[in-house]
Specification:
Number of strands: 20
Largest sheet: 12 strands, mixed
Shape: globular
Structural class: alpha/beta
């Protein structure tokens, strides 16, 4: 079903292979509790590494002469039958007599792009993904949707949002040059961030409006600490339709240490919300960790990564850690070793603190990143805007460390895994659910870049487990979706608000007057479709740094000649003693260091690779239960 010409083979960089091997081989003191629903359970850390390095082709190189930042897809297959360009809009429809739907365009699959490829779904499940689905059951009578030149992606997954707090406009200080804080308790006491004035319940107009905002960007699943019944799937608030499809709920926790009262507890004497056993029993535990760059943030992680001295080890394969800013290379290695993930919210981090997690170091040691929006007060309005921020930061502060495909994976495959739903959604893979989003071609070319550069006007179709929820009006009609006709950026669209939410789009909009917009269309040129008051994605801290300069290329406040990592953002942090991060003390900053952790982290003369407890001195290597984990 995937017959075609392989233009560019799947490529994995060799530059990180030794370090990744070390990360996989270590079996330290953590006990790797919990389930993981990934298809490739044993390879999740190995699969996390960037696949662009050492000569892989640019996304744009694989599709056009245009040059863009970041690398290209790990495999591109040119299918033999071209998909015709649409006569109007982004896609054209040819009605069929059967129940199946055949979508044709540039298919962004897991590890490969099928140019002029096909996706066939019948009911809620993907039946075929590849070049030629004509032989699949139901294809001969399927309704055909041709989206020539457009990118057909898995529906986006947002593993971090606070929807009960997402009607409000961004805080004034989140603009570039505004006040920046050292820890989340700083802004929590200083800023006003009220809950939705139009309701926080599952049938409230406020929650319906917020879900529509996410749907309009191509998001089909959320971990959102609240929900609206219907429409986007809420992975931490499942409905009966979801459990019937096999989903198990994620548990999301904002204050796992019980410190919502902003009180620090020394010696790990926190008011923990859950025991280690309770966390282990969750299908997926999504928790806020180390949100800031202070010793307080560092202590949060220390007490959530050990079972000793009052700590409770929440660093396991069934946990995802939101933010994880105040950490060093050894902490990131600890997370990667136990298959714990980071959910990265760069816009919110940069607009509140002026810096974010050291994502290049986390990736170098084998960690897997997902992207999440956080909320409207300091984060992104939707996943497309979060991808835009990650893309900008990657180019300007990380030296294009991540490829276009890497960033796209953070919003699809990796985000599904971080939410505990990787076996069902996140990629266009046969037998997974038909969660699909279609995006108009990028102006400069590039298959994944079509998603990274997309605005609301570029979203042509959004499908959740086989049900069309939003899209071009004529396409929605062809798919049998009798939904509310609306205008999006001057284009005819339809959204299934009435059938999914029990109220029309017009009624929801009228009831939430004054709420943060659900659609963004204003502006000219590159500013078109960008929220006017969007929080800054440029690192700044008053008196420390304010963006890149002629002598400070990465904009981290350290002039290039003195910078231990001049190509990647590596600012002075309080937790590092107002120095740049250099965990192994070799003079090369962690973000630039191919081997940022020492060979013997605990100093017990046993190399990490051979140590059954690499973070705690254990010269005797005692292992009473023969579990390959030091006592």
């Amino acid at each position: 079903m995937s017959t075609g010409t392989l233009l560019f083979p799947r490529h994995r960089g060799s530059r990180f292979s030794l370090l990744l091997a070390c990360a996989l081989a270590i079996t330290g003191c953590g006990d790797n509790r919990g389930d993981d629903d990934d298809d490739d359970d044993d390879d999740v850390v190995a699969d996390a590494g960037p696949e662009r390095r050492d000569g892989a082709l640019d996304d744009a190189t694989a599709s056009s002469d245009a040059a863009v930042d970041g690398g290209g897809p790990s495999g591109v297959v040119q299918c033999p039958v071209p998909v015709p360009a649409p006569a109007d809009g982004i896609c054209d429809a040819t009605p069929g007599s059967g129940s199946a739907v055949l979508l044709r365009g540039n298919i962004l699959a897991d590890g490969v792009v099928y140019v002029d490829g096909s996706v066939l779904y019948d009911g809620d499940t993907l039946a075929c993904v590849g070049c030629d689905c004509s032989g699949a059951s139901g294809a001969d009578t399927a309704t055909t949707i041709d989206c020539g030149g457009a990118s057909v992606s898995a529906g986006l997954v947002n593993p971090h949002d606070h929807m009960t707090f997402s009607e409000g406009a961004p805080l004034a200080n989140t603009a570039h040059g505004g006040t920046r804080y050292d820890h989340r308790h700083g802004w929590r006491g200083a800023a006003s961030t009220p809950q939705n004035p139009h309701g926080t319940g599952a049938t409230s107009m406020g929650m319906r409006w917020n879900e529509l905002r996410h749907l309009f960007a191509g998001t089909t699943s959320l971990v959102s600490a609240g929900k609206a019944n219907g429409l986007v799937r809420n992975l931490d608030g499942l409905e009966s339709r979801d459990t019937a499809l096999g989903f198990e709920a994620a548990d999301s926790e904002t204050f796992a240490l019980g410190d919502s009262n902003e009180t620090f507890h020394a010696n790990c004497s926190w008011s923990y919300k859950e025991t280690e056993g309770e966390v282990a029993a969750h299908h997926m535990f999504v928790t806020h960790t180390a949100e800031g760059g202070t010793d307080y943030a560092q202590e949060e992680f220390r007490c959530q990564s050990t079972s000793f001295d009052g700590g409770r080890d929440y660093v396991e394969r069934n946990t995802s850690h939101i933010h994880a800013i105040g950490l060093g290379a050894a902490n990131y290695y600890d997370m990667a070793r136990d298959h714990a993930r980071i959910i990265w919210s760069p816009r919110s981090n940069l607009s509140l603190y002026g810096y974010t997690a050291d994502v290049s170091t986390f990736t170098r040691v084998g960690g897997e990143l997902a992207l999440g929006t956080d909320w409207t007060y300091s984060g992104s309005a939707n996943m497309l805007r979060e991808l835009a921020c990650a893309d900008q930061y990657n180019h300007d502060q990380l030296g294009s460390f991540f490829s276009d495909e890497d960033l796209w994976r953070m919003a699809t495959i990796n985000a599904a895994r971080a939410s505990g739903a990787g076996a069902l959604i996140g990629s266009l893979t046969e037998s997974k659910l038909a969660d699909i989003a279609v995006y108009a071609a990028a102006a400069g070319g590039g298959y994944h870049r079509a998603v990274l550069e997309a605005k609301n006007a570029a979203v042509a179709l959004v499908i959740r487990d086989g049900d069309a929820l939003f899209g071009e009006a004529d396409i929605m009609t062809a798919l049998g979706a009798a939904c509310d006709e609306i205008t999006v950026c001057g284009q005819d669209r339809a959204v299934c608000a009435q059938s999914e939410l029990g109220a029309t789009f017009a009624a929801i909009a009228a009831a939430t007057a004054g709420a943060y917009p659900a659609l963004f269309c204003d502006g000219d040129g590159s500013a078109a479709g960008v929220p006017d008051d969007e929080p800054s994605c440029v690192p700044s801290r008053p008196g420390a740094y304010d963006g890149a300069t002629a002598t400070d290329g990465d904009g981290d406040g350290v002039d290039d000649p003195a910078d231990n990592c001049p190509s990647i953002f590596n600012p002075l942090r309080m937790m590092d003693g107002d120095a740049q991060a250099d965990g192994d003390g070799d003079g090369v900053g962690d973000p630039c260091d191919p081997t940022p952790i020492g060979a013997d982290l605990d100093g017990d003369t046993i190399a990490n690779l051979d140590d059954n407890c690499p973070f705690t001195e254990n010269t005797s290597q005692d292992d009473g239960d023969s579990a390959d984990k030091g006592d």
